[in-house]
Design goal:
The two termini are 35 Å apart. The protein has 3 domains: 81 residues, Orthogonal Bundle (Arc Repressor Mutant, subunit A); 99 residues, Periplasmic binding protein-like II (D-Maltodextrin-Binding Protein, domain 2, 3-Layer(aba) Sandwich), CATH 3.40.190; 96 residues, D-Maltodextrin-Binding Protein, domain 2 (3-Layer(aba) Sandwich), CATH 3.40.190. The mean pLDDT is 88. The strands form 3 sheets. The protein has a 5-stranded mixed β-sheet. Strands 9-8-10-7-11 form a 5-stranded mixed β-sheet. By secondary structure, it is α/β, with parallel strands linked by helices. The protein is built from 12 helices and 12 strands. It comes from Ruegeria spongiae. This is LysR family transcriptional regulator. Belongs to the LysR transcriptional regulatory family. Keywords: DNA-binding, Transcription, Transcription regulation.
């Protein structure tokens, strides 16, 4: 992964357009900034800037790399914040990292089951669409991770359990126009404003394939979602009016469907989740073993 100095230098120079101002913002010399920018270009294999005597502007490749770098910076900032929070956690606490799709489907029933045996055990559940979850697991920031594991670095000391696949459900307000159109494809879903958690590389690839896999499909998927949030309270709140379509696990929408405020969108094709559980194989405890045995009840058969 690109080192943090190279990332910061790229973002600072992209923002200021001036080596002097970017170096001042980072608190380094112009020479150090130039070296860090060079490292960024070496890491990506791209020429990121057009350089002139008085200014530097992003090349086309630099413009395309900018949102990737910004997302990486957001991940690092979020990581630092949450690691600081984890350091405050005392003994007798089980630490879960998880993606947004797993909270009601896996985390909640497992917590209830574990608490019946260990009622004094504390739990800390950090919900996010983590970009590099196994790195955090190996660093000891989680006891268990539950989520999408499309990014799998070499992890000889990590035990991974593939969970039973379940279909993704799409819902909309009961008066939404889409319900009048009959069974839908993904192309039909994306004709309307769409909201979901962060779409990992796996989901983007699956959606692109569902849309036919061509350049037009790639462009349409890259424009999604219109609202991105890892908090389903916000996403389900969007369903109060006939505007957004929201994707998630079926149990996320049970109460809303029961209240008849929203309806599932009838689909011609189904997408299924790509969820795994992971733990460090040499970092165990009675609480973790109990948790893992409960998760095993949801293992893919």
């Amino acid at each position: 992964m690109m080192n943090e100095n190279a990332l910061s230098a790229f973002l600072a120079l992209a923002e200021t357009g001036s080596f002097q101002n970017a170096a001042r913002a980072m608190g380094v010399s112009n020479a150090s900034l130039s070296r860090y920018v060079g490292q960024a270009e070496e890491h990506t294999g791209l020429v990121l800037f057009h350089r002139s005597r008085n200014s530097s502007t992003l090349t086309r490749a630099g413009q395309e790399f900018l949102p990737i770098a910004q997302a990486l910076r957001d991940d690092l900032d979020r990581y630092a914040t949450r690691v600081a929070g984890l350091r405050e956690t005392g003994p007798g606490t089980l630490l879960f990292g998880c993606g947004p799709l797993t909270t009601g489907t896996l985390i909640l029933p497992v917590l209830r089951a574990v608490r019946r045996t260990m009622p004094d055990l504390r739990f800390r559940v950090l919900v996010s669409a983590y970009a590099r979850p196994l790195d955090l697991l190996q660093a000891g920031e989680f006891d268990v991770f539950l989520g999408d594991l499309t990014y799998t670095p070499e992890a000889d000391d990590v035990e991974i359990m593939v969970m039973e696949k379940q279909p993704i459900q799409f819902v909309a307000h009961r008066d939404h126009e889409i319900h009048q159109r009959g069974p839908q494809t993904m192309a039909g879903i994306f004709d309307f404003p769409f909201a979901s958690p962060h779409l990992h590389k796996h989901w983007k690839a699956a959606l692109t394939k569902a849309l036919g896999g061509g350049a037009e499909a790639v462009e349409k998927v890259n424009a999604q979602p219109h609202i991105e949030c890892d908090d389903y309270n916000l996403l389900t709140g969007l369903l109060a009016v006939p505007d957004f379509i929201v994707g998630g696990m079926s149990n996320t929408f049970v109460e809303l469907i029961r209240a008849k405020t929203v309806k599932p969108v009838t689909m011609k094709q189904n997408l299924t989740w790509n969820i795994c559980a992971a733990r460090k194989s040499q970092n165990t405890s009675d609480a973790l073993e109990l948790c893992w045995s409960e998760l095993a009840k949801y293992r893919a058969r």
